[in-house]
Design goal:
Rossmann fold, Quinone Oxidoreductase, Chain A, domain 1, 7-stranded mixed β-sheet, 24% strand, alpha/beta, 4 domains, single chain
Length: 726
């Protein structure tokens, strides 16, 4: 790969071919799309590299002090060799970019391959085609935000941290000294916070730009007009905060800050300017001088930046990663505009020439971006495999006498099991609730007492080994469904597992491998809506159709309560992964086929999804899964339209069919019956008689694969093919 480097001894800039960094645990490998040149920080480094040794020493007295300490400790010859060796080495440039995740290291679960991320760090977000970036130094780019704008994430975080250090309040007046890249962003952030901003810079073009982007008035620092504006806006008291975003060796910025700041105001140093504080001026006003350390808490802490140890939000609200994500959100919502700051976009291959033009003054710019070539070759179309269902010819399930009860065991006794399943089974003739298994003894005891289980235990192995138990219900958290189902199938049990069957392709393949190994295909997933009496009747009234159909399914899912385990996406999968199978199964049942492709798009943050399913005969189903709707609106509404026919379902309360004749269900209000009772009756019948399971296993596998394809489609931004075995 190619990377921009500089030799600090000679000042040489080059684009070198260097090895591709490895994708280490705790981070991601990112292919750059755009990286941003910091025309302040980076050009200062480039200029220093071109100085003589004496000039370098004068510009970096901190490094000279280290050299002198080394001389005292190690002697002149050893120190000379060490310093020359370090100077005569290539060093990287860059610290702010946007790119696409190419590989994901172990321990990372918040982004996937193909995700667009903004990256930070002068060791990790370099001007290079590929960078390895640790977890706390990247943030996912909101949908719809252009990559070239997301490349401003790091410098935006620097500006944001400076503003946070100033603690502005609504109605404050602030002074920003220096209207380069950081200063322009500070102006916008302050204006978005309800602060009136005065800016100063000797460049009239930058002053005009800052006024367009929200500054109340901007001008030359030497102009009396600036002091007049400050006096007018503040009633002569002076500004509440001063933000030093200037560079250079002049002491004028800190002197101007003291002159225009109010009594006990705050002065925040964001840039790197001379800070010879005039003691009398600062003392008499008791000015609060603060430093803003780069892009926020966590900076320069190796445990945070390299090891990924986050600071608890209750103790540190805004870390550098949270600042990065916040700035990207402001960009995506149009609260900050960086497009006017883009002075020039250069191809990455022209990096050396671009730096030289900036250094020589031929290219006058606020912000310059490097644009990277696209990855060679067209990316393969995303696909999710629908595993083949193979049976090894195990012994058929024997029918039971009508007098012999079907003995059931429940693994899990949470809210859904105790409210939607067990009430339908506890009083059903021919059913015996044998054993309930939970991870905590008290929940098992409660379920035993309430529903009449014969036994309560925490020992799953004992239940799976009990030959008298006919069927096992898996009603646990989503992350355990596939493994518990696999174990129960291998133990020869008929299995009812609540959705989802699996959270990954590997989990789905593992369940079907257990079917093949054991010959036991007695499996049902809790897709209950196809069993709802009202929908069953509406489908019957709709009858056969001619040609492709269009189906629209609106799911007004609503917000989850804070703390719900459904929000634990890292372990329990996305909310749609957990619930979406319901709606895909219903659509496929109504259309009489399994989907062949899936296309998914989402609003920012993946809260509201639009999922389009394509079927073999050309039919389509669109599932709108929204969490931001009004709570008073019905949860589920469905429309099915084919040639001269239409079916409508209103939240399992009413249904209607339009065709040659119109049919409308009873208008008397009824309780919503989403099919759990009928589904359980069909399952118990299959267990008792040994007959076919209510839903073919092939359909369960296809629905699960289609649900998994939604997440793959969101990550890749393209339709996902559901590949079936040939």
């Amino acid at each position: 790969m190619k990377q921009v480097v500089q030799n600090y001894k000679s000042g040489e800039l080059a684009v070198l071919d260097v090895p591709v960094p490895g994708c280490k645990p705790g981070g991601v490998l990112v292919r750059s799309a755009y990286s941003l040149i910091s025309t302040g920080t980076e050009l200062m480094k480039v200029s220093e590299a071109g100085m003589s040794m004496v000039g370098k020493a004068r510009s970096r007295p901190d490094q000279v002090a280290k050299v002198m300490q080394s001389v005292a400790t190690n002697g002149v010859p050893a120190t000379y060799r060490k310093v020359m060796g370090k100077l005569d080495s290539y060093t990287p440039l860059g610290y702010s970019l946007c790119g696409v995740v190419e590989q994901v290291g172990t321990g990372i679960d918040d982004v996937a391959v193909g995700d667009l991320v903004a990256c930070a760090g002068n060791e990790h977000a370099l001007h290079a085609e590929l960078n390895w970036v640790p977890k706390n130094l990247y943030a996912r780019v909101p949908d719809g935000l252009a990559p070239r704008h997301a490349a401003f994430g790091t410098v935006g975080s620097i500006a944001m941290q400076g503003v946070r250090r100033g603690e502005p309040q609504l109605g404050d007046v602030a002074l920003v000294i220096g209207l380069g890249l950081i200063g322009q962003l500070v102006v916008q952030l302050l204006a978005a916070s309800g602060v009136r901003v005065v800016g100063v810079d000797p460049d009239p073009v930058r002053c005009e730009l800052a006024e367009r982007l929200g500054g109340a008035a901007c001008g030359d620092p030497a102009s009396a007009a600036v002091e007049a504006v400050v006096a007018e806006l503040t009633g002569g008291h002076g500004v509440d905060q001063v933000y030093l975003a200037a560079g250079g060796g002049s002491n004028q910025p800190v002197e101007l800050a003291a002159r225009l700041c109010r009594d006990r105001g705050r002065v925040v140093d964001i840039g790197k300017c001379r800070l010879d504080l005039p003691w009398n001026a600062y003392y008499e006003k008791e000015l609060d001088v603060r430093f803003s350390r780069s892009y926020g808490p966590g900076r320069y802490d190796p445990e945070y930046e390299l090891e990924g140890r986050d600071y608890p939000i209750g103790y540190v609200r805004w870390t550098e990663r949270r600042n990065l994500a916040c700035f990207l959100d402001l960009l995506a919502r149009g609260r900050v505009d960086v497009e006017p700051l883009v002075s020039h976009i250069a191809d990455f291959d022209d990096a050396v020439e671009t730096y030289q033009r900036l250094k020589d003054g031929d290219l006058k710019a606020v912000a310059v971006l490097f644009r990277y070539p696209e990855h060679a070759g067209e990316p393969e179309a995303p696909a999710v495999a629908v595993p083949a269902v193979r049976r090894s010819g195990g012994a058929p399930t024997p029918a039971r006498s009508a007098k012999t009860p079907v003995r059931l065991a429940f693994v899990g006794a949470g809210n859904y099991a105790t409210s939607m399943l067990l009430p339908h089974l506890a009083q059903r003739d021919g059913v015996e609730l044998s054993t309930v298994v939970t991870t905590t003894a008290l929940s098992a005891a409660n379920a035993k007492r309430k529903f009449g289980f014969a036994e309560a235990t925490t020992d799953l192995d004992a239940v799976l080994g009990d030959k008298s138990i006919d069927a096992v219900f898996v009603v646990t958290r989503h992350s355990s469904h596939a493994e518990l189902t696999r174990r129960a199938l291998l133990a020869g049990k008929t299995v009812f597992v609540e959705k989802p069957l699996a959270l990954t392709e590997d989990e789905l393949a593992g369940v079907l491998a257990a079917v093949e190994e054991s010959g036991n295909d007695r499996l049902q997933v809790g897709f209950n809506r196809r069993f709802a009496p009202l929908l069953q009747e509406a489908r019957k009234r709709f009858g056969a159709r001619t040609g492709p159909a269009s189906l629209r399914y609106l799911v007004n899912a609503g917000r989850l309560q804070h703390g719900s385990w459904y929000l634990q996406q890292g372990t329990e999968g996305s909310r749609f992964a957990g619930e979406g199978g319901h709606f895909i199964d219903t659509a496929s049942w109504l259309l009489g086929a399994d989907p062949v492709s899936v296309y998914a798009v989402a609003t920012s943050g993946n809260e509201d999804l639009q999922v389009v399913l394509h079927y073999p005969d050309g039919s389509t189903a669109t599932i709108s899964y929204v969490t931001t709707g009004a709570p008073s609106f019905p949860k589920e509404t469905l429309d099915l339209v084919a040639y001269n026919k239409a079916l409508r379902l209103d939240d399992f309360v009413r249904a209607s069919v339009y065709g040659r004749k119109r049919w409308v269900s009873s208008r008397l209000p009824k309780a919503r019956d989403k099919g759990q009772s009928a589904e359980l009756a069909a399952f118990i019948k299959a267990v008792r008689t040994g007959g076919p399971m209510p839903v073919p296993l092939e359909s369960l596998a296809a629905t699960t694969a289609a649900t998994l394809a939604v997440q793959a489609g969101l990550a890749g931004g393209a339709p996902v093919t559901l590949e079936r075995p040939r």
